[in-house]
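Colleagues,

For the teaching module next term, I've prepared a clean inverse folding example: a structure given as tokens, and then the sequence designed for it. I'd like students to try predicting residues themselves before seeing the answer, so please don't circulate the second half yet.
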């Protein structure tokens, strides 16, 4: 059984930082696309970042230069370092896994395994 567990969310002031973690069981990270998505109230789920072997990581334009995705394969863990956070980054953040490219790394429909989200709130 595949399980993904995201953690690390919280309340942070604008300009602050958080590091999200996604720990997987039942799936080998090295063989999968691992993506971070977020969904704010009243908005569609959007791709934030994705990491996979052999290609450069994907970042949404809105987070380029501020967020960094990384992986620790022995720990089956993917991280999302989020710096210079803005109020518009407030959302529930999810990690997801896919064994295929599907409709693209940033497309939620590509991913067939999802973890529960972690809330990120950026507010003063």
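(Answer key — instructors only)
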């Amino acid at each position: 059984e595949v399980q993904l567990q995201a953690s690390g969310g919280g309340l942070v002031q604008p300009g602050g930082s958080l590091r999200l973690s996604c720990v997987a069981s039942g799936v080998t990270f090295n063989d999968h696309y691992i993506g971070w998505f977020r969904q704010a109230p009243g908005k569609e789920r959007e791709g934030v970042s994705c990491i996979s072997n052999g290609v450069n990581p994907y970042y949404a334009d809105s987070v380029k230069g501020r967020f960094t995705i990384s992986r620790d394969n022995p720990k089956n863990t993917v991280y999302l370092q989020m710096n210079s956070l803005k109020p518009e980054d407030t959302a529930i953040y999810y990690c997801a896994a896919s064994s295929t490219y599907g409709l693209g790394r940033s497309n939620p429909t590509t991913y067939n395994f999802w973890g529960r989200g972690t809330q990120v709130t950026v507010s003063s």
